[in-house]
Design a protein that fits this description.
The complex is a heterodimer. By secondary structure, chain A is an all-alpha fold. Helix content of chain A is 62%, strand content 0%. Chain A contains one helix and no strands. Chain A is rod-shaped and about 50 Å long. The chains are: A mainly alpha, B mainly alpha. Chains A and B meet through helix 1 of A and helix 2, strand 1 and helix 3 of B.
Chain lengths: 50, 130
């Protein structure tokens, strides 16, 4: 959840951006790991590079 | 059994021989079917063991990747925070305010509950030093 401070504090807005970016990176890292796991188990799929 | 077969008349012998052949053929078929079933079972067991081996390797790789990913993401987040935390805070510029207001609305904030800056006619105030 975005804190209300993102509209009154540039620092809070930037902190929120960093948090969103880290969340996205964690999600895509998990997708990448799952993809490589599935491919190792025989699924024919193109995976993002590690 | 052969003695009894030989003691029969010719048509009887032929019929008996045919029966004997049929029984031998049927027994052979049963034996072949059993062998095929055993071969398939062995192939299935081999495939399962191979799949378990592949899966164990994939799990090990994923666990190592998870640790590396977490460390890299934590490090990047720290570097980003370090890069901005010593700079004096300011009001966000109008674009950032408008973006922030829309984010707050999108996550369910009603206009009446949003910060005052989100309720201004333009939806954003000018940025500048706080």
């Amino acid at each position: 959840m975005a804190p209300a401070e993102i509209v009154t504090s540039a620092q809070a807005a930037a902190d929120y951006d960093v948090a969103v970016e880290a969340w996205g990176m964690r999600g895509w890292a998990a997708v990448t790991r799952l993809c490589h796991w599935a491919r190792a188990n025989g699924m024919e799929v193109d995976c993002p590079a590690r | 059994m052969l003695d009894r077969l030989l003691s029969l008349e010719v048509p009887g012998r032929i019929a008996g021989a045919a029966l004997l052949l049929l029984a031998t053929f049927a027994l052979g078929r049963c034996d072949g079917a059993r062998r095929e079933a055993m071969r398939q079972e062995a192939a299935r067991a081999t495939a399962v063991v191979e799949a378990m081996g592949r899966n164990a390797g994939a799990h090990t790789d994923a666990a190592a990747a998870r640790a590396a990913d977490t460390a890299a993401i934590v490090q990047q987040k720290k570097e980003l925070i370090d890069a901005i935390q010593s700079i004096p805070d300011t009001h966000p510029d109008p674009v950032r305010v408008a973006l922030g207001c829309q984010r707050l609305r999108a996550q369910g904030g009603r206009d009446a509950n949003l910060p005052a800056v989100c309720r201004s006619p333009s939806g954003a105030e000018a940025g500048g030093a706080r």
